[in-house]
Amino acid sequence: MEVLQLLIGGVAQGCVYGLIALGFVLIYKATEQVNFAQGDLLMLGAYVALTLIVEARAMGWSIHLAFWLALPLTMVIMAGFGYLLDRTVLRPIIGQPQFAVVILTIALGFVFRAAAGAIWTTESQTMATPFTGKKVVIGGAVLGAESLAIIAGTFILAAILYLFFRYTRIGIAMQAASQNQLAAYYMGIPVKIIFSLIWGISAAVAAAAGVLLAPIATIDPEMGFIGLKAFAAAVIGGFGSLPGALIAGLMLGTIEPFAAAYGTRAGLPKGVPEVSAYILMLVVLIVRPQGLFAQVHRKKV
Amino acid sequence: MRNIFKTSYVQDIRLIEHGGHVFWYGLLLIAVFAAPLLIPQFFVGEMSLVFVYAIAGIGLMLLTGYTGLASLGHAAFLGVGAYAHNYFVTKLGIPFPFALVMAGFVSAAVGIAFALPALRMTGIYLAIATLAFAVILDQVFSHWASVTGGFRGVPVARPNLFHLDMNLFGWAVNIAGWEMKTEVHFYYVCLVVLILITLGARNILRSATGRAMMAIRDSEISAQSMGIHIARTKVTAFGLSTFITGIAGALLAHKIQFISPEAFNIILSIQLLLMIVVGGLGSLHGCFYGAIIVAFLPQFLALMKDVLPPSIGQIPGLQGGVFGLILVLFILLEPYGIYGRWRKIRLFFEVFPLYRAATFKRRRGYLKTERMR
Predict the structure, then answer these.
(1) CA-based nearest distance B265→chain A, Å
(2) Which residue on chain A is closest to B322 by alpha carbon?
(3) Is residue B107 part of a domain?
(4) Cβ-defined contact of A285 to B142 (cutoff 8 Å)
(5) CATH number of the domain residue B187 falls in
(6) Which listed residue, of A1, A88, A129, B29, carries a Cα 20 to 30 Å from A72's Cα?
(7) pLDDT per residue over A182-212, tens digit each?
(8) Do A128 and A65 contact (CB within 8 A), yes or no?
(9) To the nearest whole angstrom, how far is the Cα of A230 from the nearest Cα of chain B?
(10) Is B202 among the domain residues?
(11) Which is it for strands B258-259 and B178-179: parallel, antiparallel or unpaired?
(12) Which residues pair with residue A136 across a beta bridge?
């Protein structure tokens, strides 16, 4: 049953990668900006949720009520934060080289980390959730309820996002803006506001990922570095493809624990399991630079 | 205002454009050579750190500022240079100057080995690939213990010029050499290397290779149409950049006197980027301004810790946060960096009542999508 346990743990970790990667892809697809601060948005989301839950518990609320109120509230707060971030910091540099945005978001990540350290201290904290420490036994394998909650949460979120982009007016406007900004603008779509909304959604998804990740990890200002691995997932998935990001995230999440468990037995050099995500990404980038689920169209001359 | 009327091609690519350069750069040279006699030893040490950072900055500037290839993992090449140099000096007993150059070549070899497959990518994908490569190199530093000392790192001896302790064809050769005992000696070594590298970079930039690099930065398609071999030029740029960065790494190893994998992590890569962005992308002057900021800011913050209220001064990630904030402000307010600001100020006085802010205005264009290729 070791395999099943590794698999579920890996899939849960992969779901978190997938959710962060989804945030990368959402922003990239719509605005062609690469947001290196996505992992730090996750960190901020986790801290906001932690604060809300601690406050609610202090008022004597039950853990269930506190958690299920904190989750949507955190997503709303972070969505507002993402919207304002785009409005104030990123909109002024629209039209400048892409590289400027990369450096800008990396720098923002540093600022967020320092701010989080100042507000919540740098000590690792754990978040109490209704799933913490519960076990589910399926077919002889003991599985953590946290892992199952992550998987369920990811699928619900993915379904909501799918329905949103497929059926709502604003979701379709977002698709239009991501396919062709200029044409969307001519059709009367307020592209700038759409961009800010996308940043909001992306921050909310990151916050949800942070809340889901919190039970299986500790919360500290450095937890955003998980974003680098999720980044690898986004690249492997083809950077412009939402399902690709999720699938690649799941792939990375499942490869890692197996590489760690069987890698040395299989004769891999030390250190390879830790960087398996990056090796996979480099291979994909070299062999198929547009990613596995690409959306590149050849320009017709 | 100084007007230079260029009448020949040779004049256009001259190293020294006019007499003013001779005067001011001469003055600067005298100042930096005389500095150790005038300032306290602590600042001499800090100055040599500035020089080392400036060398690394020139390396990254050739790649990012002049060829337009962003690297988010250049600290790893610093690491390659540092480890290779230390290995050559301590394990093989090669004299310092030769080990320094060989460390550069090792770093360049690693860089080219990475560049050959990686240059199929462009723009953001290349930046990501460099990041991934740096993480992988970091693991190599941690696990190849026989060369790198593993997680625990290795101490680095003081540099020793012309020390030779080898077994050459059966002859045991041992030359005592000249150990650089004080910071001042090391300062002069860094200074000389920096001057050589700066002149070298300046000469490369005015050669055909350098102009090809800039042409690729400005427009890959038009460069190709002019007959520039894109792939070869990019690999050359990568090689040159990593060569210079490797030399900087070797000097940095002596400067920090202890190398471990954490010394060359992503934070250092970001600091290098910060250096050239804040200094001014696309100008060698920018490397120097940026190096001064990156080298002195931690000292400045340490001093400010006592002045600021503890609630601000004691934030653990303060240094990273301040670096980030500076970077954000520069990108939003002065994308051309310190050197760009200096050019604006200079132009303001040169044309005094006629300065127009629009002279430097950036062209804003509609985003050209990268999905259509």
Answers:
(1) 12
(2) A111
(3) yes
(4) no
(5) 1.10.3470
(6) A88
(7) 888 898 889 889 999 999 999 999 999 988 8
(8) no
(9) 12
(10) yes
(11) unpaired
(12) A143
3-state secondary structure of B220: helix
Burial of A217 by CB count in 10 Å (0-12 exposed, 13-18 middle, 19+ buried)?
middle
| CA dihedral over A28, A30, A32, A36, signed as positive or negative | negative
What span, in angstroms and rounded, lies between the C-alpha atoms of A227 and B40? 44
Residue B84 lies in a domain: yes
What's at A19, amino acid-wise? L
Q: Residue A63: is it exposed, middle or buried by C-beta count within 10 angstroms (0-12/13-18/19+)?
A: middle
Q: What is the pLDDT of residues A14-60, one digit of tens each?
A: 888 988 998 888 888 888 788 889 999 999 999 999 999 888 888 87
User: What CA–CA distance (Å, rounded) separates B144 from B102?
Assistant: 20
User: Between B24 and A241, whose confidence is greater?
Assistant: B24
As for how many domains chain B has, the answer is 1
- Chain A nearest CA to B198, separation (Å): 25
pTM exceeds cut of 0.80: yes
- Residues A259, B125, B284: CA angle, nearest 5 degrees: 120
Which residues constitute the domain of residue B244?
40-296
On whether the CB atoms of residues B310 and B93 are closer than 8 A, the answer is: no
The torsion region of residue A212 among left (phi > 0), alpha (psi -120 to 50) and beta comes to alpha
Test B320 with A98 for CB contact under 8 angstroms: no
**Which residue in the set B123, B317, B365 is minimally distant from A98, CB to CB?**
B123
Give the other-Cβ count within 10 Å of B225's Cβ.
10
Location of structure tokens 């007993």: B93
Is the Cβ–Cβ distance between A33 and A191 less than 8 Å? no
The verdict on residue B360 lying in a domain is no
Contact A114 B321 (CB under 8 A): yes
> Could you give the C-alpha distances from A219 to A126, A153, B27, B94, B219, in angstroms and in order?
6, 19, 54, 48, 45
Percent of chain B with pLDDT over 90: 26
Q: Do B132 and A95 touch (CB under 8 A)?
A: no
